[in-house]
Amino acid sequence: AVGVDNTFRKKFDKEEYLQRAREREQQVELGYGQTTISSKGPPVQRKPLKHRDYEVDLESRLGKTQAGYYCLVCECVVKDSANYLDHINGKKHQRALGMSMRVERASLQQKGEVIFCSLAAGFNERILEQQQEEEEWRCQHRERKKEREEG
């Protein structure tokens, strides 16, 4: 069986593939076909995560039969309150709000302000507690003194 091709291997026509590559290059130059990643434009800038400035009201629906919680931003229904909280804190919802999942780095000054405020609040609380203890001690002292004078 002379001349029978029994190798079952694909034969590549180099000229055909070179022609296809040239056509692809021409289409890209003309603006057709696939574009490269760099030509998509700048990436979308999203704001960093921030604290919620509103209270999530889950208690008003306690004990009531309902279809679930509806998210107006994402237009989806979530089965229960736990899943709703997971949704509003999740990546899909935050992206729909225009936020990335990254947190803004605090500057040294901001960290100092937070530490100072927490120390000041703690200091004020301790002063108030100490004043209350002193007031209680004075009241007890007065009562003991009256008891001694009467008895």
Automatic annotation (TrEMBL):
Any GO CC annotation of this UniProt entry: spliceosomal complex
InterPro entries named among the record's database cross-references: Matrin/U1-like-C_Znf_C2H2 (IPR003604), Snu23 (IPR040107), Znf_C2H2_jaz (IPR022755), Znf_C2H2_sf (IPR036236)
A Pfam family of this chain: zf-C2H2_jaz
SUPFAM superfamilies: beta-beta-alpha zinc fingers
Keyword Cell membrane belongs to the record: no
Region annotated Disordered, chain positions: 29-48
Domain U1-type positions: 66-100
Keywords, comma-separated and alphabetical: Metal-binding, Nucleus, Zinc, Zinc-finger
MF terms in GO: nucleic acid binding; zinc ion binding
Keyword Transit peptide (UniProt): no
Alphabetical GO biological process terms: mRNA splicing, via spliceosome
Protein name: Zinc finger, double-stranded RNA binding
Origin species: Dillenia turbinata
